[in-house]
Amino acid sequence: MNAMAAVHAARRWRPARRPHAVPLKWAWPAYLSAVDQLVYAAEKGYYATQGRLGIPGGPPVTAEQYTDTSNVALAQWTLASLGVFSALMALAAVRPWGGLIPRPLLLLGLWGTAALAAASQVHVVREVLLGSGPAGWSGRAAVQGVVGLCLWLAMAWLFTRRRGQNTTATVQTARGTE
Predict the structure, then answer these.
(1) What global pTM score does this model have?
(2) Residue 36 domain-assigned?
(3) What is the pLDDT of residues 9-33, one digit of tens each?
(4) Which helix (H) or strand (E) holds 156?
(5) DSSP one-letter string for 82-130
């Protein structure tokens, strides 16, 4: 690869810089998703401080599951940190500082998270509606999860549709703007 090809390739993968936040009429799913993820992280953090496994609204955890998990608090703190990370990812889709992240990487994170959330939510809804697994799932957990998934999907779709808005940064050189 010659020097000019390398320069053009670097410009193509440079993070997008958005000088302003996305208008609220397009950004509200991201803000609500971030709040939803922070609530999830707080619930997991609460369970971690108590040294408990489980999901709020989920079935009771058996003693066997505690023996399978070597460090309960670490497992719950890890899940809480993933909730905080996904809240930051949701905000990065609509805030100006999110333009520092390359768009393909953020799209991969948004849609990858959507796929994982959809897979787990199918399981929860199936357990609530059919009751084929352990008893104890509440309808509130299923509704909260479905609403959170729908918000996340709306946010990811809106971010994907905004592909033409300031996706490349302008470069100031001695010869002018390139």
Answers:
(1) 0.73
(2) yes
(3) 655 555 555 556 778 888 899 999 9
(4) helix 139-161
(5) HHHHHHHHHHHTTSGGGGGS-HHHHHHHHHHHHHHHHHHHHHHHHHHHH
